[in-house]
Amino acid sequence: MKSDEYESSQGNATDSDSPSNESRRAFFKTTGATILAAPAILTSRKSSAQSIADDEPLPPSPPTTPWLRELPEVIEPLEQTDLANDPLPPQGVANTANGECGRANHQRWEHFFGDHPLYPDQADTYDFRVQAIEDHEFHPDYAKQLAWNYVGGDDQVNPTIHARYGRPIIVRLHNELPANHSGFGTPEISMHLHNLHAPSESDGFPGDYFSATKAGPTMGGPGRWKDHFYPNVYAGYDEFPKSAKNPVGGDYREALGTLWYHDHCLDFTAANAGRGLAGFYLLYDELDSGDEHDPNPKALRLPSGAYDYTMAFQDKRFGADTLQIHDQFDPEGTLGDKVTVNGIIEPVLKVARRKYRFRFLNAGPTRFYQFHIVAPNNVQQTFIHISNDGNLLPRSLLNRKNVRLGVAERADIVVDFSAYSLGTELYLVNRWEQTSTRGPKGIKGPGMRVVKFVVNREPDEPDVSQVPTKLRPIRRPTAAEIAAAPVRTWRFERKNGMWAINGGFVNVHSAAANMAQGSFEIWELENPSGGWSHPVHIHFEEGVILNRYVSGIEVPVPGYEKGRKDVYRLGHNEKVRLFMRFRDFPGKYVMHCHNMTHEDHAMMVRWDILG
Ligand SMILES: [Cu+2]
Questions:
Q1: CATH 2.60.40.420 fits 306-457, yes or no
Q2: pTM score over 0.85
């Protein structure tokens, strides 16, 4: 970043330098990197001391002493807040008279709840305050610093929500970020619950951001808060209606398990999620019941409770002053060289001698991971891979030695620590080498150690959990459906220094594709470049991968991609062909690269389901 650019851009800094200024956004999208590069330093109060030429690599983050902090042994789910008895109970129509932003009406409100505001016991209800916290400690060697968090219940930070199929949830989101915020990030928010089969108005559409004074271009008006309605029904709700035999409604083969919520504000997802706005939402049902003691013969009885453990990985960069830096205006962004695990660099997790289910999430913004579990001498250990993108695979994958995660991908694995003696130390390492935000390079050992496990105790009670070979059946499209499906191609490529899909930049006002409700299509996602990788995310509906190609030659679909997916990794010159159904809730949705830097620099399309 050149200081003269910084100086010259300062004169343009006004209130209009905010997401609500559409003309600035249009300008931002159509101009090149040289102009875009300037305001990052302008708006980044923490990194303003740094002046770095564009062609110079960032210096590495300051060193840290590893393994100083412990992760909690148990991650407690968020306690409910009783919203039905609140003076402002949730209702189908936005309560704009009392400060709710101008969201669209909740779809099917009357169907689920009746023609009235929510009654007690009709849904689980949670209250989130989105707040700036000034004393977050990423690492004891670093200064305490600003982070943004979802705060719920009894001051739980980025809490984990436990949800159950057949039980709707309302999450009320209060935007309490400072309107006068400076530095990277923007205090307008839109909360996306990644992969929930949730209606458009609760999906966290990027143009639906809000604060008390500003509203996104697709949001009806500003507000202090917003209710999100999560029906927690299986996809296929219209095709497989609710009945005595199907009490949840929808297709149980479509169950989702490991989901996450994060900020999705248009143009500022990398910055806002990078400030810390991300957390888990775990969805259980009769099979994956979250109870290893479950007497129901259908229950899988996977490790549960304290042994069902979430880990969110984020790549972050820190300046010489140990404060987090992020360049939100550079289309190549800022690659993190420190990996936080649930907000902490190089934490220790003390584990009991028994099976654990780990739910790994690549929470971005940019880095790809290939995780291995190794002994201190770097010998690889084995584990069972049970779930990809939060969905239980048709069959357990045994004796695995690594899992790969593009941004937003999830992997659930089961590690059996009973194979180790007390005092054993193991490490989670990332061996996927990456030196820029463009994508990963080769696999290189020994890799970076990101978590230390210490087997420090016997379990309180015998481990009765299981890992069945057969997990959840999958509905694959029939040959007739594949033959009948229209084919739509989406090309992900670089254009004018920005990132484009089919040659276009994000436009939240108009849909690039319109799907009839209940229809299905084959989508082909192509990355014709040899220089970049794109983890592509499609909102709302999952796909089944039919074929994979590298440089036009078909390659096998790996076993871990044979379930349902919502993120599709496109390496160099790769193409993925997938089968998509468009069901249940009409409205506006998006597809985008989930490298949040690419996403924020226009690699996104809106697509709609027409009701
Ligand atoms: Cu990308």
A1: yes
A2: yes
